[in-house]
Amino acid sequence: MEKNILEINNLSIAFEKKELFSKKETLYAVENIDLNIKEKEIVALVGESACGKSLTALSILKLLPETASVKSGIIKFDSKDIYSLSRQEFQKLSGNELSIIFQNPMSCLNPLKRVGKQIEEAAIAHGKTKEEARKMALEILSITGFYDVEDIYKSYPSELSGGMMQRVLIAMALINGPKLLIADEPTTALDVTIEAQITDLILKLNKTLKTSILLISHSLTLVSNICHRIYVMYAGKIIESGTTSEIITNPLHPYTKALIQTLPDLNIRSKKLNVISGTVPTLKERQNFKCPFYDRCDFRKEKNISSKCKNKIPDKTFVSETHFVKCCFYKGGQNGTD
Amino acid sequence: MALIKTQGLVKKFNHSGNIINAVDGINLSIEKGKTYGLAGESGCGKSTLASMLSLLTKPDEGHILFNSKDINTLSKHEEKEFRKKVQIVFQNPYESLNPKMKISSILEEPLLIHKIGNSREERKCLINEIRTMCALDSAVLDKYPLELSGGQCQRISIASAMLLKPEFLILDEPVSSLDVLIQAQIINILKLMQKSMEMTYLFISHNLNVVSYISDVIGIMYLGNIVEEADTEEILKNPVHPYTKTLFSASYNSYSSYKGESMAFTGKLTRPESKSCPFCLRCPHCKDICLNRRPESKELKPGHKVSCHLV
Amino acid sequence: MKKYFSNPSFLTGTIIFASLLLFLLSGSIFNRCDYDAIDTLNKFAASSKEHIFGTDYLGRDVFARILMALRISYSVGFIVMISGLITGIILGALSGYFGGIPDSIITKIVNTQMSFPGILLSLMLIAVFGNGTFITITALYIMTIPKFTRIARGGFIKYKNSLFVTAAKSRGAGPLRLLFVHILPNIVPDLTVTATLNFSLSILSESGLSYLGLGIQPPLSSFGRMLNEGQRFILQSPSNVLIPAVFLILSVLSLNLIGDGISSVNQK
Known about the structure:
Structural class of chain C: mainly alpha
Number of helices of chain B: 10
CATH superfamily of chain C: MetI-like
Radius of gyration of chain B: 20 Å
Order of helices and strands of chain B: EEEEHEEHEHHHEHEHEEHHHEE
Distance between the termini of chain B: 29 Å
CATH topology of the largest domain in chain B: Rossmann fold
Oligomer: heterotrimer
CATH superfamily of the largest domain in chain B: P-loop containing nucleotide triphosphate hydrolases
Radius of gyration of chain C: 22 Å
Structural class of chain B: alpha/beta
CATH class of the largest domain in chain B: Alpha Beta
CATH architecture of the largest domain in chain B: 3-Layer(aba) Sandwich
Helix content of chain B: 25-40%
Number of strands of chain C: 0
CATH class of chain C: Mainly Alpha
Number of domains of chain B: 2
CATH architecture of chain C: Orthogonal Bundle
Largest sheet of chain B: 8 strands, mixed
Strand content of chain B: 15-25%
Distance between the termini of chain C: 15 Å
Order of helices and strands of chain C: HHHHHHHHHH
Number of helices of chain C: 10
Shape of chain B: globular
Strand content of chain C: under 5%
């Protein structure tokens, strides 16, 4: 049984707004989420924009914006509570055993420095000499699929394409052989062919370097090709989780079902695409409902269970050891009566 | 009947001393009432082509005929008429809208420019009509673009283009920066509007799933050239050009893993010389003839054109 | 608007400037004395009910002279700022948006002018046309044009190729609409900062010129004039120097704080 490399328990993140002439407002963007990643696993966190997935990733690396803070919960990396580590202790982990790559590769690279030097920085920051760092940089460039590593090492970011820059960033994140790599929408800004190459690369790196990966995306199709397990997030809460085959073949939550049905079926081109009416509730609007999906849920109207859903906080219902869903339809729901 | 036609369209760019053809001799013909899907990766020249078709850039060589008239020879008055008939929607929803303008002003503007609607009330009526078609709440009218979501902003851009009731709508990667659920919503809206307003679409995207879903005809673009063109059903069943095949295999058609004919990724982007086939440097089947001579467009079957020596 | 008032600099600056304006307004209503009523028997009088701020070396009521100084300094500063702003926007639009030959000509003229020390330019104008309020305003106006032009030009260049301008063009918008309905509102924050800082600088420059005897001429009063007249008798009547100095400092400080505040809010 592999141990957990990342354990998030009951994490809540809120934004605090304090203006000169108004009351202090605390708006929760992420509420009570639990997430585990084992060694050598690729786990996906899937959800629409503004559902809180990026904030979750940032909180693991203590990179939350000024106005946001962790309100409750524990994040454990390799059994160490991240928020109780000192700054120096955490700095030793960050970029070394734990690293992250972001969505837009162009804005993450310094346009004035050669790519090779930027990759080395990560190694030098963790105690390697210049010579060792250079060797490691060339090696990681080759592992990430570049053929002419010397040429790429000497290039400036402006000479590379989007896909190549993203691979350089992956190299930077992996140079110290981290135990966990967080990839926040790594292919959203890239073309489909490059997307295929990057996901291929991620799969390869997981197999050869044994790195665990947390892949964050808004596309269920993308992650279903390479991930072992999927967490589905909506409006700050995790509403379903299971192995990839469980989620894809037997989606339970109405939102997950909608995500799967949205992909255009090339065999039935004339059919109208399934959409969910309405929009993701804003941070303020979320306080109105117990179930985050209540407002947009067509499923409850279909099954006529609105009275059941209306005032209950959906509880976790396990349909198998690994597959759970938070929906009032599937038995349970806290309010005393059932 | 072709609504819009291009002949030998070329646009050159100066890229660090070298002159490259971003659009390299395109012959395009789009029929009235149909959707032409233009698929290709970033940097292949699709946006440059869109920009020329919407009269935002002038071509260096070649002609663009709209209703059989060359659009680069129009008088100022005719140009304004053209702008009513041909509209464009861009990729980035936030950047397409003026951050300092309220949505109601943004939507009223096209009507004011072309003097459509004789009173405020009439204009309001037209705006409300389009707004409902685009599934937008009346509450958005009082907001600023940055207060809305990406999907809402993109629908506003579409609404502002539709207000002029154009004959031809160019959509340059309209859903690429949006979540999958929002993509679906916008595609539904576009399909509905096309039917009710009898419009012709040019739908540009690198996402083959979306392009195949919405288009009647697909053109595959690579480095400024259309390398294959056919009806959607035909090209999905029988892709011929090596690039088309690779592009299709890289898209997720279903939940099975793709079987890639992966392209050799040799390193930095290099463009081949103008005498060669544009795809020769990345093509797994490249032969000598491909390096020495540009392939011409051949018609394999009626309606299915390919530019490749090996066919 | 709320976000501006939450900024401490902006709030402080606005309060001070508003107080000065209020002082000017109420003072003008209640003032009984003429600013140029000479009464040499009553020179250097201390503060009294009749002369709240006392009198100067010619027995003139300092309070009345301060009110006049405020009126003149603010009017001169305001006129210079507004005319510079409008000219800057027009020149900036021509050179930034249209580019080409107009741009080359305008930038060359503006750059040449910026390398000229302002005082020298004013001296030259005064040598040719004589001194007085009108010449002061003209000299300061010419000095401010380059600053506004540069900011406006930068803004027009930045936004002319932005996507929303291209989108508006595709809907049929002509150059005037693009310049003034689309681009201008987006460069207002930067222009406002320049305008407030320029307002304060104009007040200061006018005071400088008047202090040298080149700007506002007697019997009109301005801060610079009062400082010039007061400095000779600073030991006998320090208040004649301190009072205009304090008002000058408060005016300039308040406007600088406002400009600073706007700049911080827009940087976020």
